[in-house]
Amino acid sequence: MNFDELFGHLGQHTVDGLSKGAIYALIALGYTLVYGVLRLINFAHSEVFMVGTFAVLGVWTALGVENNPPIGQAVLFLVIGLVVAALASGGTALAIERIAYRPLRRKNAPPLIFLITAIGLSLVLVEVFGLLLPDVAGGALPSMFGRARQIVGMPTILKQETLFEIGGTQITNIQLIVFVCAVVMMALLDWFINRTRYGRGVRAVAQNPETAALMGVNQERVIMLIFVLGGIMAGAAALLWSMRFGFTQNSIGFVLGLKAFTAAVLGGIGNLRGALVGGLFLGIVEVYGATLLSSQWEDVIAFVVLVVVLMFRPTGLLGESLGRARA
Amino acid sequence: MIDKIRNADRRRIGAITAVGDRWRALPKWQRILGVVAFVVFLYHLPWLGKLPGGLIIPGLNDLRTDSITGGNNWAGVLFVCAIYVLVAVGLNVVVGLAGLLDLGYIGFFAIGAYSVALFGSVNSPVVKWFQREFDLPETWAVTWAICLFIAIVLTLISGVLLGWPTLRLRGDYLAIVTLGFGEIIRIVARNSENITNGPQGISAIPGPEGPPSADNQVFGLIDARPWYWLAITAVLLMVFAVRRLEHSRVGRAWLAVREDEDAAAVMGVYPFKFKLWAFAIGAALGGLAGFLFASRNAFIDPTQFNVNLSILFVAMVVVGGSGNMVGVSLGAVLLAYLPERFREIADYRWLAFGLAMVLVMILRPQGLIPSRRRTRELKDRAAEAEEAPAHV
Predict the structure, then answer these.
(1) Nearest residue on chain A to B309, judged by CA atoms?
(2) How would you class B125 by CB atoms within 10 Å of its CB: exposed for 0-12, middle for 13-18, buried for 19 or more?
(3) Which tens digit of pLDDT belongs to each residue from A232-290?
């Protein structure tokens, strides 16, 4: 137990945790949206994120991005990366809904069948990306029958620099961008769900599907919408991840997905603001825990948090609600 | 077009269940004879396609994995198949009978494997600690048979420990928590170097005749046949035991809880108790499988207990037909055997498993050899959906 390290640099660890948690929160939104409307854990959502990182990798490779480009170009690349990742992730999420979930919904299948399908689908996506896209980054043509499943590096878009210091806590440009971007994306989503016509439809279906249908809400469209929205958020997370960590792998989604799901449950699954709170909280807890024990135990901490939350407060910190409460 | 396929599929499902009915309608002596013949066939499998005197039967010989270049030892593959069948039978208790989705089954498998490694191998830190503390000779280690006992007790306890807090949760939460559990077991095994040797793993895991050595008469490192016979014996015993359980009061309680938990509770069946039973029994079976696996391999390390295997186990059960013991055994054998026999697909096997899961769930959620009751449950739900099409 390394308490000296933790309390000696408490501010620094908190900032690290916040910027990590912001990414979890963005992914968690995908779980929360789908759960809020369909009462379904979209297990394949972690792969939506994974596809997003590969989209970023692909577009940066295609554009010939090199390490540390001038700032104007860097911004351009980031914006292009965001758009492409959002398109790819949103498209993947939509495809998952159409291929896997819609036929099951027609048959009113039990929830476990949805979950098993999603697990199968996520395995398929992981394997497709492991087998077909081994090294897009190498500049070579994707070798179709390679078996490479190793980590693929990405160019550094922004050089990590300390922007300012508050009381010995250094805040880097990347941390700031990650945090601000994530919060802006979430604020946009919150506005969309709470203030627009489409958002009202989503909330109506979440509250009561039958009544919503009677009131003229097109349910299928709402379901497609939430999958796409969740996918776009995962795409944004993928861009931020690529910028901050600079690598991807076909199996990257599994652990991140579990953590994001933990974040969603922690904040109250189905609750958009809960996802933000849960994500940031989990990020901080994880960094603190990893400092206290050692970074080897990082993944265990998230799972323990999940079990503890589910045992003592299964509705999460802010409670489950997409439709209720803020109708 | 799709309707045509659906109807054909419905007929096939009918035909499969009809085979089951015909079997049950046979006179008892014929059924016993059939079972005995099948058991003899199972024990004879290592010689599949081979006749005494070096003759081979062409069709059957091609089924063997050592008939292709670079194929694995046939008896070794049979052993793995038997282990997977054991896993599938155990997981079927949890998934098929009690209706709980356990995605962390590899955790129990690992605990079983590590119990024989930690207590039975002279290379394990635990045994070394015992030797130091109690002035035991350096060759001392816990006997294999006692390790078996330890493995089963430990997995039972861990099943209860995991189940106690989590079984009150909704089904899909349970699945995610167990998934986390499987991963935790692997990470703990990797990180606690002073207990499990960490990533280096543990070697010299004993078999029934003691630590692996060239002097062992029966359970050697090279000839896998005795190991296969040992495993298949365990499978047969466990299939028999689970069958008895399925048709007992406990089995009926599982079924009631699976179909409608609230109704079961109203009828006086306490769901939590029976779910915990299913979890613990399933865990113990998984532990037994892991125990045999570790004994045969004589070496384990944490990478052998990857979380993907948990998903493979679930795939075996759901593709085969959850709730039906013949179905899940077939699923296990197929998923273990096909990548070994057809090496060209070995690279794509995870892809194939994933595809198989998705396709089976969408087209035929009851599995290849469905359980009749399961089929009817799903049909009921589909009929409800047609009555109320607006339902999400």
Answers:
(1) A123
(2) middle
(3) 999 999 999 999 888 888 888 888 998 999 899 888 888 888 899 999 999 999 999 88
